[in-house]
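DM from R.C. (forwarded with permission)

"hey, sorry to bug you on a friday — could you get me a structure for this? deadline for the figure draft is monday and I only need the backbone to look sensible"
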Amino acid sequence: MTDNHRTSNQSTDQQQALVSIYWDYQNIPTITIAKDLLLFGSGFGYVVNRKVYDNWKQRNQAAQVTLRSQNFECFHVSQNIKNAVDFHLSADCFSEASNSPYRHTFIIVSGDGYGEVLIDKLHDKGKKVIILARKGNDNHNLKKLADQFYLIDELPKSIETYKLAA
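My reply, with the result:
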């Protein structure tokens, strides 16, 4: 893929890829990964969006406070329809990809099968897709479709690998 927005006189910061994190907290309700997600994302570029989706009225409010303190945006999705969180996350993610002309990596924290359609749409827009899923809740097709795939349990190890490579 040709990266048309870069020129030789741009600064390193302008050449760095953008990164957006989209987290299905309903699927992976593990607050302890928040800091590691940010470190992981920064290994791929400049993290511009941090979005977390859940039915927050049914969750401990302490999780929201912790996430917001790390600049995550918490989106409340009521559960009126099945897979409501999946639909909202996908729509927001695709909307951002459609409006971003830059090199952009999308980190999707989930593992649900709905991600197959989202990955295809993001690839059609020329975006890189990284999936993070919980062991036992990972869709086999996501592993094949994503540019990179990691298990949440491997996240600390992956961060250490990037630190050593830097």
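R.C.: lifesaver. DSSP finds seven helices and six strands in the chain.
me: no worries. The CA atoms of residues 55 and 76 lie 5 Å apart.
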